[in-house]
Amino acid sequence: MAGLGALGIASGLAVNSFTSTADAAPATATATATPAPHSGPVVAHLADARTGAVDLFIGERQLRVHDPALASALAHAATLGS
Hints:
Blueprint: H1 2-15, E1 20-21, E2 27-29, E3 42-48, E4 53-58, E5 61-66, H2 68-80
Helix pairs in contact: 1-2
């Protein structure tokens, strides 16, 4: 489970510059190569592994990214805890 959290935090670092507020519709972004600085917890929700949709919750902000590699890694990490 720790690996899954670390993966979520790493993905949040990569896309933090594309965040929106939780009250608004989720933003959509593609992961970038340059991580933006961020402190605090990040929660990743695998919305659709087939399409690569991952919802990130960063503080009070929500962000939807489409990253098939990240979605695959999260799905795989989820099976490790079973």
